[in-house]
Design brief:
20 strands
């Protein structure tokens, strides 16, 4: 069976991998000139198998006025400019209830843990370097009520095979002494021993080579203009480079999914930002997440990746300002974690495709022959293996 895939980021590439394993012919289509030029390019690098939490949670309700007035540096909302954006925001608010958040937590945990096993299996068949290490992760909490709330979900997660444990700050410092150098007071931590790191871009480049060596085709600089259907059945694709005959299609286009087809799950952009720098004087080993600021510190090989924030409905209008804020806040809290004055400085901003529940949509569309694998939010790298494998089972 010949299957076309729209999107050559980590979701599209892992989807192609699992389809190739099943013996299908695969063609990947992307509007950029190469793989991983969007959200996969310089993301946080954390494979969060055990701490992949939905963005919508009960504590956001109490923060709404602060967020709406743009006084919270971690999350920013512009007022929705379209009806779909407003619907997304209303649905997101509904997913901030305790019951909805707990259900979403467990569903994300299942997908994340499945990815861990699948990545190990992939590495048995493909040997390549992408700065992959088991660094573990510590998530740090400044507010007691938020720490206790996260701690309350650990038992249910452990039933799925999750290894998260709650720690005192003293115990967290034993596991990562670099915490002592942070300029904040923390009341507790969640330690995720199984969590790992890897450079998503390096992974995508290597997987592209494997796919090409195994017969996959790539059509770059190719933008989908319209799906061509006979009744409700896909027959082809109109692109800027002409017509492509296609009967089976998987859309892995992230935030652009809605431009191609209506998804059963609303998907909007949560803009994120990253800075990549040489290491500082504190050689931290464990990946760290500052939950209050929504900032991640990750060691990727010989570099430090700092990732942060979630900006909704901004459409790229705020990038330079937000990158400066990320640099300033990171320098203030963790002055010795990176060489902030280095000339070897790389910055990035990317649109992360978020559903209101933080659960990606992986399944068929209303058009016969067209499937969707999108909406992975902050965990595209982590969930890519489970979602790629899951969508391949439809063929």
């Amino acid at each position: 069976m010949h299957i076309h895939i729209v999107g050559a980021g980590v979701i599209g590439l892992t989807t192609a991998y699992y389809l190739k394993k099943k013996g299908h012919e695969v063609t990947l289509i992307d509007k950029e000139d190469g793989v991983a030029k969007g959200s996969s390019f310089a993301n946080g690098g954390q494979l969060s198998y055990c701490f992949s939490d939905p963005l919508g949670k009960p504590n956001l309700i109490s923060k709404f006025l602060k967020i709406a007035s743009n006084r919270d540096p971690a999350i920013k909302f512009k007022f929705p400019s379209s009806f779909d954006s407003l619907k997304w925001l209303i649905s997101f608010a509904k997913n901030c209830t305790k019951d909805a958040h707990k259900n979403n937590q467990l569903e994300l945990a299942e997908l994340s843990l499945a990815s861990k096993t699948l990545l190990y299996d992939l590495q048995k068949h493909i040997d390549f370097d992408f700065d992959h290490q088991k660094n573990s992760k510590i998530s740090l909490f400044e507010k007691e009520e938020e720490f206790l709330y996260e701690e309350s979900s650990l038992h249910q997660k452990r039933l799925l095979g999750n290894d998260n444990v709650a720690l005192s700050i003293e115990d967290a410092v034993i596991r990562e002494p670099g915490i002592k150098s942070l300029n904040r007071e923390y009341i507790g931590a969640i330690f995720s021993e199984s969590d790992e790191v890897g450079d998503t871009y390096l992974f995508c480049i290597a997987l592209q080579k494997w796919l090409a060596d195994n017969g996959a085709k790539f059509l770059f600089d190719t933008e989908i203009k319209e799906l061509v259907k006979r009744k409700k059945k896909l027959t082809g694709l109109k692109t800027n480079n002409g017509f492509i005959e296609a009967s089976k299609l998987v859309i892995c286009a992230g935030t652009l999914t809605g431009d191609i087809i209506e998804s059963p799950q609303l998907i909007t952009s949560a803009k994120g930002y990253s800075i990549t720098l040489p290491p500082g004087s504190v050689d931290f080993k464990v990946s760290l997440t500052l939950t209050e600021q929504k900032i991640l510190f990750t060691k990727l090989g010989n570099k430090v990746r700092i990732t942060g924030f979630a900006d909704f409905f901004y459409n790229g209008s705020n990038d330079e300002k937000r990158l400066k804020e990320l640099l300033s806040i990171s320098r203030d809290i963790a002055p010795d974690f990176a060489d902030y004055d280095s000339l070897h400085f790389n910055s990035w901003s990317g649109d992360r495709p978020c559903t209101p529940s933080s659960i990606p949509y992986i399944g068929p569309s209303e058009t016969e022959g067209v499937f969707i694998n999108s909406g992975h939010g902050f965990y595209g790298w982590t969930l890519s293996f489970a979602s790629g494998n899951k969508i391949s089972n439809y063929f």
